[in-house]
Amino acid sequence: MLPAVSPVVVAERVTKWYGPRRAVADVSFSIAPGEIVGLLGPNGSGKSTIFRMLTGYLVPTSGRIAVAGHDVVEDSIGVRRAISYVPEDAPLYDHMRVGEFLHFMAGLKGLHGAKARAAVDEAAERLDLVRVMKLTAGKLSRGFRQRVSIAQALLGNPDVLVLDEPTSGLDPHQVIAVRDLIQSLAGRHTVLMASHILPEIEKIASRVMILLDGVLLTSDALKDAAPDFRLRLSADASLESIRAAADAVAGVHDIVAAADEGGRFLVAADRRPALAADLLSALVGAQIAVRELTELRPDLERVFLDLTRQPEAAA
Ligand SMILES: Nc1ncnc2c1ncn2[C@@H]1O[C@H](COP(=O)(O)OP(=O)(O)OP(=O)(O)O)[C@@H](O)[C@H]1O
Asked: Where does the ABC transporter domain lie (predicted)?
């Protein structure tokens, strides 16, 4: 489905051949501003190739890609201003101090003097790097290297950030920190991130695309998993009174009592951003004490396995 607002990334029927090897086959998708989109696929499925084409480092064999309205082939300078790439291994100059490195990268992005200082200070603040600015990059932990790599990508305030396996090689604490960080970027930036780890991408992305052997099997696996939006509701009230209160909320399809225990219900509804808030205010308006109202994540694993087991049926 195409997003309602003007997309910031558009790929139309993109194919890439490396000599006789086809790495990406007829891939089309679009991404709306502020989305966090996950690109999930096993090793060798073509994720990095798509990223290199989006960022203007590789030219598609056929098809068209535009980022923030700039065509990747005709206006690669415009594209490079609008998009930043954080490769998997967070390459840094190990002998450089973090502050020095960020200033160096700001210069490469055309930022100088006061503008460069302001951009570096803001990125250091946002990525919590102020206390390591004087350390050389070689002394940093894997988690801090990843932060520095994301900080350099934020210099110049790009519309789109592309992150290749951003949590690979991190310990569990660092994974959580980087995950929170990526979620905090949503809204101000559009994020496209690759992973071959399903539970990881599921926790971060608001939309998941699945790639296998260069073929895009779905551009919204979460929606395929559950056409409806499902919420879990805990409240001190009867099913009848909850149904009566929710009657006035547009998009609520059904409410059933959960089998396990009293006071817990499942709500099926349209996937509408304000739905939970509307439902909550209707319940509160009806004097119903709500203990919990949370979105249930659909079973992405099942969709992934179905699609990747039968690519010819789904492609
Ligand atoms: N420069 C290249 N020359 C020839 N073949 C390549 C080149 N780069 C990638 N490939 C091949 O293209 C296919 C897609 O590779 P790509 O690196 O895009 O996949 P990926 O999903 O990013 O994998 P990974 O998760 O391992 O990084 C693979 O079969 C790979 O071997």
From this structure: 9-238
**Candidate of 17, 18, 200 to mutate for ligand 1, largest count of ligand atoms within 8 Å of Cβ:** 18
Range of the domain at 177: 9-224
The ipTM of this complex is 0.96
> Percentage of the chain with pLDDT > 70?
94
Residue of 222, 209, 161, 162 lying closest to 45 (CA atoms): 209
**Ligand 1 centre from 223 Cα, in Å?**
28
Q: Ligand 1 in contact with 147 (CB < 6 A)?
A: no
Compute the distance from residue 2 Cα to the ligand 1 centre, in Å. 28
Same domain, 252 and 197: no
Which atom, in ligand 1's list, is nearest to the CA of 18?
4
Q: Going by C-beta distance under 8 Å and a sequence separation of 6 or more, which residues neighbour residue 23?
A: 16, 17, 46, 49, 214
Q: Is 249 exposed, middle or buried (0-12, 13-18, 19+ CB in 10 A)?
A: buried
Q: Tell me the whole-structure pTM to 2 decimals.
A: 0.77
